[in-house]
């Protein structure tokens, strides 16, 4: 069995730092700001031969109101799911009334609770012990999550009843570096086992509400306040036999509107999540229509080459005249995204949300569809026969054959001569033809042209007069035969 460990404590006691240390990652956003973590963040770790799951939670004090109350509910949900609880406290702050109240509530649970005092670097453990023993505990673990000190002893004690193998030597961090590196290489070489779906958009457009609706549970904190989500939350789940990873991201505002360092890191992680995703759902607020920042985000998605589905949220409550106006505006400003499916939804009430999965499935299938060289070449020959390339300097551009150059996004490589002189209009003609014939809906298509190397390039000064004369006679003969 794989144990589940929940990290619980007041805000800013180092839960996210310990989470990153245990999972050997930087998945959790870390800053010296109380209440930075709001949603449950799950991660996998390895200690010796024993795997485990760790849950990072938001800070809890017992007197939460507003958005803090929603964060507290997420923390209590993580406690209910956990097999082990690490109750974290701050050695520099000492024992507080909130720590005592939280310890009293945790003692009522029927599962092991390990008392962890963090930030012990530079502090005499014997001096700190006197204060924390007031909780009536027999033992606590002194650690410094930033340096990794004390974590080996903590994990050895916590996983004693679970781990069959001996814990690794050293006190820096759990896990075997060599095994982790080999596993990472195998994961990169193997095809993706789960479809990563990132939900992107401006602040307060309903991204977390949409994910909760797609999952069918209150998995993320939802509050009527811009910037509720600060970190990129990865959620693994299974639907109809397929593994998925839903990624909730922080709202991305215009650069000139961002001054806070935490928000800058949140935006960086949101854009990184988009780069790592297979499909992106861009959420637009129907009440605002499409604004300049929405177009900027669409530009980032196009540059990344991700498959795309556009969800126009908060469609409920709009008058029919307002809906017609929004549709006209979207049709006018999103002409460059004619391949992406557009869905009008209400994440709050669930209207139209079910069709998003179907659109995502189509976009993912199109982005990863295998393309054969004979089929691509036949389509190219038909396209050239119907609409030949233009003449350049009296010579016809010749396109010989095509083959697949990659997937997600699909890439088609076309070989020929004078390909650097193919006009943009003809490139669009080929792109539209391939997209229509191959049914590539929901994904961008990249076409790359490659020409044959000129054997005489750069050698003119190396030829003798007799060789130059022979070359001229040969070129005249080729031109006469081509006519």
Key descriptive features of the protein:
6-stranded mixed beta sheet; Rossmann fold; 14 helices; GMP Synthetase, Chain A, domain 3; 3 domains; 17 strands; 483 residues; alpha/beta
As for the number of domains, it is 3
Number of strands: 17
Which CATH architecture of the largest domain is right? 3-Layer(aba) Sandwich
Q: Can you identify the CATH superfamily of the largest domain?
A: P-loop containing nucleotide triphosphate hydrolases
Strand order of the largest sheet: 2-3-1-4-5-6
Rg of Cα set: 29 Å
Report on the architecture of this protein:
With 483 residues, the chain is α/β, with parallel strands linked by helices. It folds into three domains: 4-189, 3-Layer(aba) Sandwich (Rossmann fold), CATH 3.40.50; 194-366, P-loop containing nucleotide triphosphate hydrolases (Rossmann fold, 3-Layer(aba) Sandwich); 373-451, GMP Synthetase, Chain A, domain 3 (2-Layer Sandwich). The chain contains 14 helices and 17 strands. It has a six-stranded mixed β-sheet with strand order 2-3-1-4-5-6, sandwiched between helices. A six-stranded mixed β-sheet has the order 8-9-7-10-11-12, sandwiched between helices. The protein has a three-stranded mixed β-sheet with strand order 15-16-17. A hairpin with a 2-residue loop joins strand 2 and strand 3. The chain starts with a strand and ends with a helix. The model is unreliable at 165-191 (pLDDT under 50).
């Amino acid at each position: 069995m794989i144990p589940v460990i929940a990290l619980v404590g007041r805000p800013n006691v180092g839960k996210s730092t310990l989470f990153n240390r245990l999972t050997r990652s930087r998945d959790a956003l870390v800053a010296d700001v109380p209440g930075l973590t709001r949603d449950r963040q799950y991660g996998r770790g390895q200690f010796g031969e024993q795997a485990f799951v760790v849950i990072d939670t938001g800070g809890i004090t017992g007197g939460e109101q507003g958005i803090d109350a929603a964060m507290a509910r997420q923390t209590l949900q993580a406690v209910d799911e956990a097999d082990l609880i690490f109750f974290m406290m701050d050695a520099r702050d000492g024992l507080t009334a909130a720590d005592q109240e939280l310890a009293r509530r945790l003692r009522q649970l029927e599962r092991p609770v390990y008392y962890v005092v963090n930030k012990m670097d530079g502090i005499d453990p014997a001096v700190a012990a006197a204060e924390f023993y007031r909780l009536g505990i027999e033992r606590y673990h002194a650690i410094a999550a930033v340096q990794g000190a004390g974590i080996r002893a903590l994990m050895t004690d916590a996983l004693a009843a679970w781990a069959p193998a001996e814990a690794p030597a050293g006190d820096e961090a759990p896990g075997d570096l060599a095994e982790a590196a080999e596993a990472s290489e195998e994961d990169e070489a193997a095809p993706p086992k789960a479809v990563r779906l990132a939900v992107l958009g401006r602040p307060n457009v309903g991204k977390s509400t949409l994910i909760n609706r797609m999952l069918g549970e209150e998995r993320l904190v939802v509050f009527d306040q811009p910037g509720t989500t600060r970190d990129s939350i990865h959620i693994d789940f299974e639907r109809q036999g397929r593994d998925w990873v839903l990624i909730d991201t922080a709202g991305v505002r215009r650069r000139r509107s961002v001054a806070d360092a935490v928000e800058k890191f949140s935006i960086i992680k949101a854009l990184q999540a988009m780069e790592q995703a297979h499909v992106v759902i861009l959420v637009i607020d129907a009440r605002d229509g499409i604004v300049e920042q929405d177009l900027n985000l669409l530009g980032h998605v196009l540059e990344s080459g991700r498959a795309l589905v556009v969800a126009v949220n908060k469609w409920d409550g709009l008058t029919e005249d307002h809906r017609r106006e929004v549709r006209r505006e979207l049709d006018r400003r999103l002409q460059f995204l004619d391949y992406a499916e557009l869905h009008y939804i209400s994440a709050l009430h669930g209207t139209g949300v079910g069709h998003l999965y179907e659109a995502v499935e189509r976009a993912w299938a199109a982005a990863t569809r295998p393309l054969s060289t004979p089929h691509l070449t036949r389509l190219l020959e038909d396209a050239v026969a119907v609409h030949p390339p233009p003449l350049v300097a009296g010579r016809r551009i010749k396109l010989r054959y095509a083959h697949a150059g990659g997937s997600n996004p699909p890439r088609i490589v076309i070989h020929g001569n004078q390909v650097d002189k193919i006009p943009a209009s003809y490139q669009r003609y080929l792109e539209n033809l391939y997209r229509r014939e191959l049914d590539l809906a929901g994904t961008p298509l990249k076409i790359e042209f490659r020409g044959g190397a000129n054997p005489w390039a750069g050698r003119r000064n190396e030829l003798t007069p007799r060789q130059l004369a022979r070359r001229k006679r040969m070129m005249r003969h080729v031109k006469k035969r081509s006519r």
